[in-house]
Each structure stands twice: as C-alpha cells, then as structure tokens.
Write a structure and sequence with these properties.
This protein is mainly α. The protein has one domain. It is built from 2 helices and no strands. The protein has helices at 12-41, 47-71. It is elongated, with a radius of gyration of 16 Å.
C-alpha cells in the first residue's frame, strides 16, 4: 500500500476514516498474532505458511504506522 509522504490538513471525516482503517488493520494484526502464536504452540509444521502469515503481520504493522503518520500534522520548520 503506497501513501503520500505528507497530506495537507485532513478534514474531520478524513481523519475519522483513517482512524477507522487503522483500527481495522490493528484488529487484523492482533488476529494474525494470535493465529501465529497458536500455530507455533501446537507444533504447526508448514513453515512456509507460517512465514507468510508473519510477513503479512509485518506488512500490516508498516501500513498502520504509515496511516498513523498521516494523522499527525506536519510541524513547520
């Protein structure tokens, strides 16, 4: 997912939409975390599948951070 480096002042509805998207991604990240922990604890042997889940989890984390940065207004130098 590609995001612009800086967004000019967001409207309230845009901020709410971003916050909602962040919450959704955080939920998916937590779900994947629980799934990977469970699979590792039960001795899941498909390492490729586990690696893909972990990679998706890392991508979600990056996406969440990018969206959070959009919510923080730029500070003029």
């Amino acid at each position: 997912m590609a995001y612009a480096c800086a967004m000019p002042n967001l409207t309230e509805s845009e901020s709410l939409a971003l916050a909602s998207q962040i919450a959704s991604l955080q939920t998916e990240h937590r779900d994947l975390d629980a799934i990977t922990e469970h699979l590792e604890a039960t001795g899941f042997t498909d390492q490729l599948a586990l690696r893909r889940l972990k990679k998706r989890k890392l991508q979600l984390k990056d996406d969440i951070e990018q969206l959070k940065m959009l919510l923080v207004p730029d500070i003029p130098a």
